[in-house]
Amino acid sequence: MEQLKIKVPFGAQVDYFVKWAVISGVTGILGGAVGGVFGHGIRLASAAFRRHGWLLYLLPVSGLIIVFLYQVTKQGKNKGTNMVLEAISSNQKMSMATGPLIFAGTVLTHLTGGSAGREGAALQIGGSLGTLVGKVLRLDERDGKVALMCGMSACFGALFGTPLAAGIFSMEVVSIGIMYYAALVPCLFASFIGAGVAGLMGMSAEHFTIAEIPEFGFVPALLIVCLGVLCAVLSIAFCLALHQAEHLYRRFFKNPYLRILAGALLLIVLTLLTGSRIYNGSSVSLIEEALEGHVRYEAFLLKLLFTAVTLGAGYKGGEIVPTMCVGAAFGCVAGTMFGFSPSLCAACGMAALFAGVTNCPISSMFIAFEMCGFEAMPYFAIAIAVSFTLSGYYGLYGSQKFVYSKTKTEFINRKAN
User: Fold this and answer.
1) pTM over 0.70
2) pLDDT tens digits, residue range 163-180?
3) 3-class SS letters over the chain
4) Distance in angstroms (rounded) separating the CA atoms of residues 213 and 217
5) pLDDT of 1
6) How far is C-alpha 154 from the chain's CA centre?
């Protein structure tokens, strides 16, 4: 019997692997190094704000500097993370000024007590680095998009210390319903290398301990389903709050300098009224308190308000850590009201809200596992699935596309609300 011969284009796969192993390695080293410097900059700025409370009153000054930097570089209409997503999904060009601007703007925001994160900013810095690598290596348009995603993964992994989630997030966040699997090896290589480089620079991974994980069963599962439903509603409110805050600022203050001055005054007043600085900055300590099982009932609302006021006015930073803070605080409160492990509910709330606002359920599961361990896996999976499904087509990023429906196997190709 004649032997059946099957031609496998193995050479093409080898070429692809070698090519992207090198490119992702370079991008990972660059992203990890820049991410490490950025992370230390944020830490120093946050520490300075904690030590010197009077820095709060420099919010108007830092705001004016941020606006000036964007205006003088003609980046007043820079869309931030949305521009990064558009550079991947369309022919939108990524501005090389984005990286340095978001770096400086985020450090200034944290130095003076603005409520923002750092990982969203890392996506912009990483996107700029990836674009630079693509230009230097003269990659074509398609490979340039993969290089951009590599940069995002490298910086995200460097700052958060969650390389698995970072590698998948860059592929998942652009178009909901499909993933660019050609970027799987490049993004994962870049994220792990970026996290490794940042680790050598002294950046530690984020890790939280869940105080109590009850045995999984019908009643606990039902309670987590309820939490997932509530997180879906909260994710919609979170997205609307951030978007509406920006619209209101622009409606009442046409001038960007006046907008950011108004935001600075609001933040100062809010900080003085609450009598606490826990809602300023990234508020990671709020997550820690929530996982210990005790936060104030209004904490999640206040963090949401501080973040909307900050980012809507034009201060710079990420939305991801504030999202996790709001989710963790809300989950802790819900768990207290349910009478069911507030610590576990805080962790589930954190992951579920992240899934609801980013529309990235796979990345949300991975980030929950990397940050909190695998022991609570069934709780995480249920909370994330429910929140993602019921959060509709709202999202933090207006340029994010829903290629396929969340509820039907049909092509819809619509942008996030």
Assistant:
1) yes
2) 999 999 999 999 898 888
3) CCCCCCCCCHHHHHHHHHHHHHHHHHHHHHHHHHHHHHHHHHHHHHHHHHHCHHHHHHHHHHHHHHHHHHHHCCCCCCCCHHHHHHHHHCCCCCCCCHHHHHHHHHHHHHHCCCCCECHHHHHHHHHHHHHHHHHHCCCCHHHHHHHHHHHHHHHHHHHHCCHHHHHHHHHHCCEECCCCHHHHHHHHHHHHHHHHHHHHCCCCCCCCCCCCCCCCCHHHHHHHHHHHHHHHHHHHHHHHHHHHHHHHHHHHCCCHHHHHHHHHHHHHHHHHHHCCCCCCCCCHHHHHHHHHCCCCCCHHHHHHHHHHHHHHHCCCCECHHHHHHHHHHHHHHHHHHHCCCHHHHHHHHHHHHHHHHHCCHHHHHHHHHHHHCCCCHHHHHHHHHHHHHHCCCCCCCCCCEEEECCCCCCEEEEECC
4) 12
5) 41
6) 13
Residue 20: φ, ψ to 5°: -80, -20
The tokens of 58 are what? 């420099």
Q: How many CA atoms lie within 13 A of 9 on its CB side?
A: 4
In the predicted model, is pLDDT for residue 2 greater than 70?
no
